[in-house]
Amino acid sequence: MSFQSEKALVRAHYDALAKATPETVADALAVHTSADWHWRGMHPFYEQDGAQAVAESFWAPFLRAMTKVQRRQDIFIAGRNEIDDFQSVWVISMGHLMGLFDAPFLGIKPNRRIAMLRYAEFHKVVDGKIVETAMFCDLIHLMSQAGQYPLPPQTGMHLVQPGPATHDGLLFNDAAPGEGEKTLTLINQMIGDINTHQKYSTPQEELAQSWHDDFVWWGPDGIGATYTIDRYIEQHQRPFRTQIKDRVYNGHICRTAEGNFGGFFGWANLSVTNGGGYLGMPAGARSEMRVVDLYRRDGDKLAENWIFIDILHFLAMQGADILGRMRDL
Questions:
Q1: Are residues 138 and 206 in the same domain?
Q2: CA 34, 123, 139, 265 torsion-angle sign
Q3: What does the pLDDT read at residue 52?
Q4: Same domain, yes or no, for 189 and 321?
Q5: pTM above threshold 0.90
Q6: How many CB atoms lie within 10 A of CB 64?
Protein backbone atom coordinates (compact mmCIF):
# COMPACT_ATOMS: atom_id res chain seq x y z
CA MET A 1 0.00 0.00 0.00
CA SER A 2 1.62 3.22 -1.16
CA PHE A 3 0.67 6.80 -0.28
CA GLN A 4 3.42 8.41 -2.36
CA SER A 5 1.11 10.15 -4.83
CA GLU A 6 -1.06 11.62 -2.06
CA LYS A 7 1.98 12.76 -0.09
CA ALA A 8 3.54 14.31 -3.18
CA LEU A 9 0.33 16.22 -3.88
CA VAL A 10 0.18 17.72 -0.38
CA ARG A 11 3.88 18.60 -0.46
CA ALA A 12 3.34 20.35 -3.80
CA HIS A 13 0.36 22.17 -2.26
CA TYR A 14 2.60 23.37 0.56
CA ASP A 15 5.33 24.43 -1.88
CA ALA A 16 2.77 26.54 -3.76
CA LEU A 17 1.58 28.15 -0.53
CA ALA A 18 5.17 28.94 0.46
CA LYS A 19 5.53 31.09 -2.67
CA ALA A 20 2.13 32.79 -2.38
CA THR A 21 1.35 36.38 -1.45
CA PRO A 22 -1.95 37.73 -0.14
CA GLU A 23 -2.80 38.66 -3.73
CA THR A 24 -1.88 35.29 -5.28
CA VAL A 25 -2.81 32.83 -2.54
CA ALA A 26 -6.27 32.03 -3.95
CA ASP A 27 -4.69 30.94 -7.24
CA ALA A 28 -2.04 28.94 -5.37
CA LEU A 29 -4.70 27.13 -3.33
CA ALA A 30 -6.70 26.30 -6.47
CA VAL A 31 -3.87 24.39 -8.15
CA HIS A 32 -4.04 21.26 -6.00
CA THR A 33 -7.61 21.42 -4.64
CA SER A 34 -10.91 20.50 -6.24
CA ALA A 35 -13.40 23.14 -7.36
CA ASP A 36 -15.72 22.08 -4.51
CA TRP A 37 -12.93 21.78 -1.93
CA HIS A 38 -14.48 21.74 1.55
CA TRP A 39 -12.33 23.40 4.22
CA ARG A 40 -13.00 23.29 7.96
CA GLY A 41 -11.29 25.89 10.13
CA MET A 42 -11.43 26.96 13.73
CA HIS A 43 -13.35 29.95 15.08
CA PRO A 44 -13.77 32.47 13.48
CA PHE A 45 -13.11 30.82 10.08
CA TYR A 46 -15.48 27.84 10.24
CA GLU A 47 -16.45 26.02 7.02
CA GLN A 48 -15.54 27.36 3.59
CA ASP A 49 -15.91 25.98 0.06
CA GLY A 50 -13.44 26.61 -2.73
CA ALA A 51 -10.00 28.21 -2.94
CA GLN A 52 -11.25 31.80 -3.14
CA ALA A 53 -13.32 31.52 0.04
CA VAL A 54 -10.50 29.82 1.95
CA ALA A 55 -8.05 32.50 0.82
CA GLU A 56 -10.34 35.34 1.86
CA SER A 57 -11.21 33.74 5.19
CA PHE A 58 -7.79 32.61 6.45
CA TRP A 59 -4.77 32.68 4.16
CA ALA A 60 -4.81 36.23 2.79
CA PRO A 61 -5.34 37.87 6.22
CA PHE A 62 -2.68 35.59 7.73
CA LEU A 63 -0.12 36.39 5.04
CA ARG A 64 -0.83 40.12 5.39
CA ALA A 65 -0.11 39.86 9.12
CA MET A 66 2.91 37.53 8.98
CA THR A 67 6.04 38.35 7.01
CA LYS A 68 8.21 35.58 5.47
CA VAL A 69 6.11 32.62 6.62
CA GLN A 70 7.88 29.26 6.98
CA ARG A 71 6.14 25.92 7.45
CA ARG A 72 8.08 23.93 10.05
CA GLN A 73 6.64 20.41 10.05
CA ASP A 74 7.09 17.91 12.87
CA ILE A 75 4.71 15.16 11.72
CA PHE A 76 3.78 14.18 8.15
CA ILE A 77 1.90 10.91 7.63
CA ALA A 78 -0.79 9.38 5.44
CA GLY A 79 -3.26 6.54 5.85
CA ARG A 80 -6.63 5.12 5.03
CA ASN A 81 -9.54 6.37 7.10
CA GLU A 82 -10.99 3.85 9.53
CA ILE A 83 -14.22 5.87 9.78
CA ASP A 84 -15.26 5.08 6.19
CA ASP A 85 -14.00 1.46 6.35
CA PHE A 86 -10.57 2.45 5.02
CA GLN A 87 -11.89 3.72 1.68
CA SER A 88 -10.43 7.25 1.62
CA VAL A 89 -6.81 8.40 1.95
CA TRP A 90 -5.90 11.32 4.19
CA VAL A 91 -2.57 13.10 4.61
CA ILE A 92 -1.82 14.72 7.98
CA SER A 93 0.68 17.48 8.72
CA MET A 94 1.48 19.00 12.10
CA GLY A 95 3.94 21.68 13.10
CA HIS A 96 4.17 25.47 13.16
CA LEU A 97 3.72 28.30 10.69
CA MET A 98 6.48 30.73 11.65
CA GLY A 99 6.70 34.34 10.58
CA LEU A 100 7.31 37.88 11.73
CA PHE A 101 4.13 39.23 13.34
CA ASP A 102 4.09 42.59 11.57
CA ALA A 103 0.41 43.55 11.16
CA PRO A 104 -2.84 42.90 13.10
CA PHE A 105 -4.51 39.52 12.72
CA LEU A 106 -8.09 38.92 13.97
CA GLY A 107 -7.72 41.91 16.28
CA ILE A 108 -4.51 40.52 17.81
CA LYS A 109 -1.96 43.31 17.88
CA PRO A 110 1.45 42.63 16.29
CA ASN A 111 4.74 42.78 18.16
CA ARG A 112 7.14 42.63 15.14
CA ARG A 113 8.76 39.50 16.57
CA ILE A 114 8.90 35.87 15.55
CA ALA A 115 5.55 34.15 16.04
CA MET A 116 4.82 30.45 15.68
CA LEU A 117 1.24 29.44 14.90
CA ARG A 118 0.85 25.83 15.93
CA TYR A 119 -1.26 23.86 13.43
CA ALA A 120 -2.54 20.43 12.42
CA GLU A 121 -4.05 19.76 8.99
CA PHE A 122 -5.92 16.74 7.66
CA HIS A 123 -6.24 16.53 3.85
CA LYS A 124 -8.49 14.07 2.03
CA VAL A 125 -7.08 13.27 -1.42
CA VAL A 126 -9.20 11.89 -4.28
CA ASP A 127 -8.14 11.53 -7.93
CA GLY A 128 -5.12 13.79 -7.60
CA LYS A 129 -6.88 16.66 -5.80
CA ILE A 130 -7.38 17.71 -2.18
CA VAL A 131 -11.17 17.56 -1.72
CA GLU A 132 -11.43 18.17 2.05
CA THR A 133 -9.20 19.84 4.63
CA ALA A 134 -9.47 20.35 8.37
CA MET A 135 -7.15 23.12 9.57
CA PHE A 136 -6.75 23.43 13.34
CA CYS A 137 -4.48 26.13 14.79
CA ASP A 138 -3.76 27.48 18.26
CA LEU A 139 -4.84 31.11 18.09
CA ILE A 140 -4.76 31.50 21.87
CA HIS A 141 -1.06 30.64 21.81
CA LEU A 142 -0.53 33.32 19.15
CA MET A 143 -2.22 35.83 21.49
CA SER A 144 0.07 34.69 24.29
CA GLN A 145 3.19 35.17 22.17
CA ALA A 146 2.03 38.70 21.38
CA GLY A 147 1.57 39.48 25.08
CA GLN A 148 -2.24 39.45 24.97
CA TYR A 149 -3.18 36.27 26.86
CA PRO A 150 -6.99 36.30 27.26
CA LEU A 151 -7.76 33.53 29.78
CA PRO A 152 -7.21 32.75 33.48
CA PRO A 153 -3.97 30.96 34.40
CA GLN A 154 -3.92 27.46 32.90
CA THR A 155 -3.43 24.23 34.82
CA GLY A 156 -0.63 22.92 32.62
CA MET A 157 2.33 24.65 30.98
CA HIS A 158 2.16 25.93 27.42
CA LEU A 159 5.38 26.13 25.45
CA VAL A 160 6.20 26.23 21.77
CA GLN A 161 5.07 22.62 21.70
CA PRO A 162 7.80 20.50 20.10
CA GLY A 163 7.52 17.58 17.74
CA PRO A 164 8.30 13.95 18.59
CA ALA A 165 11.12 13.25 21.03
CA THR A 166 12.37 10.71 18.51
CA HIS A 167 12.52 13.29 15.66
CA ASP A 168 11.13 10.73 13.22
CA GLY A 169 7.65 12.06 12.48
CA LEU A 170 8.22 13.11 8.86
CA LEU A 171 7.24 9.98 6.94
CA PHE A 172 7.94 11.22 3.42
CA ASN A 173 8.70 7.57 2.61
CA ASP A 174 5.91 5.13 3.48
CA ALA A 175 6.15 3.12 6.69
CA ALA A 176 5.58 -0.62 6.88
CA PRO A 177 1.77 -1.16 6.94
CA GLY A 178 1.87 -3.39 10.01
CA GLU A 179 3.30 -0.62 12.18
CA GLY A 180 0.41 1.71 11.43
CA GLU A 181 -2.04 -1.09 12.19
CA LYS A 182 -0.43 -1.52 15.65
CA THR A 183 -0.70 2.23 16.29
CA LEU A 184 -4.34 2.41 15.22
CA THR A 185 -5.22 -0.61 17.37
CA LEU A 186 -3.62 1.04 20.39
CA ILE A 187 -5.42 4.35 19.74
CA ASN A 188 -8.73 2.49 19.58
CA GLN A 189 -7.91 0.65 22.80
CA MET A 190 -7.22 4.00 24.49
CA ILE A 191 -10.55 5.41 23.24
CA GLY A 192 -12.31 2.34 24.62
CA ASP A 193 -10.67 2.84 28.01
CA ILE A 194 -11.93 6.45 28.12
CA ASN A 195 -15.47 5.34 27.33
CA THR A 196 -15.41 2.58 29.99
CA HIS A 197 -13.19 4.26 32.58
CA GLN A 198 -15.63 3.42 35.39
CA LYS A 199 -14.42 -0.21 35.32
CA TYR A 200 -10.98 0.84 36.62
CA SER A 201 -10.41 1.46 40.30
CA THR A 202 -8.25 4.57 39.75
CA PRO A 203 -7.46 6.95 36.87
CA GLN A 204 -3.87 5.73 37.10
CA GLU A 205 -5.00 2.16 36.41
CA GLU A 206 -7.08 3.32 33.44
CA LEU A 207 -4.28 5.30 31.84
CA ALA A 208 -1.64 2.62 32.44
CA GLN A 209 -3.46 0.32 30.00
CA SER A 210 -2.41 2.43 26.99
CA TRP A 211 0.11 5.03 28.16
CA HIS A 212 3.72 4.98 29.27
CA ASP A 213 4.10 6.39 32.77
CA ASP A 214 6.24 9.26 31.46
CA PHE A 215 4.05 10.20 28.51
CA VAL A 216 3.74 13.84 27.43
CA TRP A 217 0.36 15.44 26.72
CA TRP A 218 1.00 18.49 24.52
CA GLY A 219 -2.25 20.33 25.15
CA PRO A 220 -3.53 23.57 23.59
CA ASP A 221 -2.89 26.96 25.12
CA GLY A 222 -5.60 27.59 27.70
CA ILE A 223 -4.95 24.16 29.20
CA GLY A 224 -1.25 23.55 28.59
CA ALA A 225 1.07 20.57 28.49
CA THR A 226 1.49 17.92 31.17
CA TYR A 227 4.14 15.24 31.77
CA THR A 228 3.65 11.81 33.43
CA ILE A 229 0.41 10.04 34.20
CA ASP A 230 0.06 11.59 37.66
CA ARG A 231 0.52 15.19 36.47
CA TYR A 232 -1.82 14.59 33.52
CA ILE A 233 -4.52 13.51 35.96
CA GLU A 234 -3.86 16.52 38.20
CA GLN A 235 -3.49 19.17 35.51
CA HIS A 236 -5.95 18.07 32.83
CA GLN A 237 -8.04 14.96 33.39
CA ARG A 238 -9.37 15.81 36.85
CA PRO A 239 -10.40 19.41 35.98
CA PHE A 240 -12.04 18.17 32.79
CA ARG A 241 -13.93 15.28 34.38
CA THR A 242 -15.05 17.24 37.43
CA GLN A 243 -15.94 20.57 35.76
CA ILE A 244 -17.43 19.24 32.50
CA LYS A 245 -20.69 17.30 32.62
CA ASP A 246 -23.20 15.59 30.32
CA ARG A 247 -20.46 14.60 27.87
CA VAL A 248 -21.69 13.04 24.62
CA TYR A 249 -19.27 11.55 22.10
CA ASN A 250 -20.26 12.46 18.53
CA GLY A 251 -17.64 10.45 16.65
CA HIS A 252 -14.79 11.30 14.28
CA ILE A 253 -14.54 12.29 10.64
CA CYS A 254 -11.08 10.83 10.15
CA ARG A 255 -9.04 8.36 12.21
CA THR A 256 -5.87 6.86 10.75
CA ALA A 257 -2.25 5.93 11.44
CA GLU A 258 1.06 5.33 9.71
CA GLY A 259 4.13 3.89 11.37
CA ASN A 260 4.32 4.93 15.02
CA PHE A 261 2.04 7.93 14.48
CA GLY A 262 -1.71 8.34 14.18
CA GLY A 263 -4.68 10.41 15.18
CA PHE A 264 -8.13 11.75 14.50
CA PHE A 265 -10.37 14.77 14.33
CA GLY A 266 -14.09 15.33 14.81
CA TRP A 267 -16.58 18.08 13.98
CA ALA A 268 -17.53 18.18 16.79
CA ASN A 269 -16.01 15.28 18.73
CA LEU A 270 -17.90 16.09 21.92
CA SER A 271 -20.99 17.91 23.14
CA VAL A 272 -20.59 19.00 26.75
CA THR A 273 -21.89 21.33 29.44
CA ASN A 274 -19.55 23.49 31.47
CA GLY A 275 -20.52 22.64 35.02
CA GLY A 276 -18.72 25.71 36.33
CA GLY A 277 -15.06 26.68 36.58
CA TYR A 278 -13.70 25.07 33.42
CA LEU A 279 -11.37 27.58 31.66
CA GLY A 280 -12.57 30.11 34.20
CA MET A 281 -16.13 30.11 32.89
CA PRO A 282 -19.30 29.89 35.03
CA ALA A 283 -21.77 27.08 34.47
CA GLY A 284 -23.02 27.66 30.98
CA ALA A 285 -24.83 26.58 27.88
CA ARG A 286 -24.39 23.35 25.97
CA SER A 287 -21.20 23.61 23.92
CA GLU A 288 -19.11 21.74 21.35
CA MET A 289 -15.51 20.60 21.47
CA ARG A 290 -13.85 20.23 18.08
CA VAL A 291 -10.64 18.33 18.72
CA VAL A 292 -7.54 16.92 17.02
CA ASP A 293 -5.48 14.24 18.75
CA LEU A 294 -2.19 13.03 17.29
CA TYR A 295 -0.13 10.28 18.94
CA ARG A 296 3.28 8.66 18.96
CA ARG A 297 3.45 4.98 19.85
CA ASP A 298 6.55 3.60 21.54
CA GLY A 299 6.39 -0.20 21.58
CA ASP A 300 3.06 -1.35 22.99
CA LYS A 301 2.04 1.96 24.60
CA LEU A 302 1.54 5.61 23.69
CA ALA A 303 4.36 8.02 24.54
CA GLU A 304 3.24 11.44 23.25
CA ASN A 305 -0.07 13.12 22.44
CA TRP A 306 -0.54 16.46 20.64
CA ILE A 307 -3.97 18.05 21.12
CA PHE A 308 -5.75 20.90 19.35
CA ILE A 309 -9.12 22.13 20.63
CA ASP A 310 -11.20 24.91 19.10
CA ILE A 311 -11.37 26.65 22.47
CA LEU A 312 -12.48 29.95 20.95
CA HIS A 313 -15.55 28.21 19.48
CA PHE A 314 -16.19 26.38 22.77
CA LEU A 315 -16.12 29.70 24.65
CA ALA A 316 -18.12 31.57 22.00
CA MET A 317 -20.97 29.08 22.45
CA GLN A 318 -20.98 30.13 26.13
CA GLY A 319 -21.12 33.82 25.29
CA ALA A 320 -17.42 34.71 25.59
CA ASP A 321 -16.14 36.60 22.52
CA ILE A 322 -12.38 36.34 23.09
CA LEU A 323 -11.39 37.87 19.75
CA GLY A 324 -13.77 40.75 20.42
CA ARG A 325 -11.88 41.43 23.62
CA MET A 326 -8.63 41.55 21.62
CA ARG A 327 -10.06 44.19 19.28
CA ASP A 328 -11.21 46.28 22.27
CA LEU A 329 -7.83 46.30 24.01
A1: no
A2: positive
A3: 98
A4: yes
A5: yes
A6: 16
Contact 99, 137 (CB under 8 A): no
Residue 141 sits in the same domain as residue 182: no
**Which pLDDT does position 284 carry in this prediction?**
81
For residue 61, the enclosing domain spans 4-145
Q: Which residues of the chain have pLDDT under 50?
A: none
Residue whose C-alpha is closest to residue 132's, from 123, 121, 119, 120? 123
Q: Into how many domains does the chain fold?
A: 2
Residue type, 286: R
Measured between alpha carbons, how far is 98 from 95 in angstroms, rounded to an integer?
A: 10
Q: What are phi and psi of 209, to 5 degrees?
A: -65, -35
The per-residue pLDDT for 158 is 84
Residues 51, 26 contacting (CB under 8 angstroms): yes
Helix (H, G, I), strand (E, B) or coil at 324: helix
User: Are 297 and 182 in contact, with CB atoms under 8 Å apart?
Assistant: yes
CA distance 197 to 110: 44
Helix (H) or strand (E) holding 144: helix 139-145
CATH (domain of 286): 3.10.450.50
**CA–CA distance from 87 to each of 1, 68, 84, 281 (Å)?**
13, 38, 6, 41
